[in-house]
Write a structure and sequence with these properties.
This protein is mostly helical and 106 residues long. The protein has a domain of 39 residues. Helices cover 77% and strands 4% of the residues. The chain is built from 4 helices and 2 strands; from the N terminus they run ααββαα. The chain has a two-stranded antiparallel ribbon with strand order 1-2. It starts with a helix and ends with a helix.
């Protein structure tokens, strides 16, 4: 399925308007009311779970294919560095170096 540039831009504008509309609807309907503590705890976990899902998707897929390549080694090194409580910059640099080394070798 192919879209023209005009159709694509209208789709982007429509989806953007729907996104902002949903965000505004949350403020209007919830207003100043407080959420139940269970719901607030669940909502607080959504950003971390979404970020984790995006990292896994970007690490193990290329286009429509599932792949395991040098990025998986970088992710493994990053996970170990986080587990060892390394500073963020060390985590990023270690993962980057591991990925680069594996790519250079293979």
């Amino acid at each position: 399925m192919s879209m023209s540039h005009t159709e694509l831009w209208w789709l982007i504008i429509g989806l953007s308007a729907a996104s902002y509309g949903l965000k505004i609807a949350g403020f209007v309907f919830v207003g100043g009311r407080t959420m139940p503590p269970v719901l607030e705890r669940c909502l607080a976990l959504i950003p971390a779970s979404l970020l984790a899902a995006l990292v896994v998707k970007d690490t193990f897929t290329t286009a429509q294919d599932v792949v395991v390549d040098a990025r998986a080694v970088g992710l493994l090194v990053a996970l170990i560095a986080v587990w060892r409580k390394a500073p963020f910059i060390v985590v990023v640099l270690a993962a980057m170096a591991a990925t680069a080394i594996v790519r250079a070798i293979s």
